Write the structure tokens for this entry.
Amino acid sequence: MVRNKFLKQKTIIFPDLKFNSYLIQLLINSAMKNGKKSLIEDLVYNALKDIHIKTKQNPLKIFEIALKNLQPKFKLIDVKIKGIKSNTPVELPIYLQIKTAIKWLLESLKQRNEKSFSTRLANEIIDASKYIGNAIKKRDQIYKQIEANKVDVYDNKQEIINKE
């Protein structure tokens, strides 16, 4: 019996007011702590202003490039085959790719040595757009694990084919 009133509804995200971008609003919502949205908005907008000053380019384009560089196409899921647990790569939908990229971006800010949140965020976004930085290292570690486990997936498919 389905209980529709208990199903989780997806929240509708409106674009931010300054850049009219959904990606920046996702970044603001995921960086927000204890409901202090106006504080995080100011910090993110200051970071985008720093990006514009340092690179002399549109900060929204640089942020989109950084997210495209960080997006994982696959994730690892534990699957039990013949009593043996193994990690198998599974494709991610685009929405989850963006969410994990933003999550990795915010987690990598803790490892940086700059004083303020806005300078750390600006420098990490610039680094991610150039394929360097802590968030890119995290993505590369995941991709190495996926490459190691692709062999297992291929072998399991071969075993299934041979049984038929």
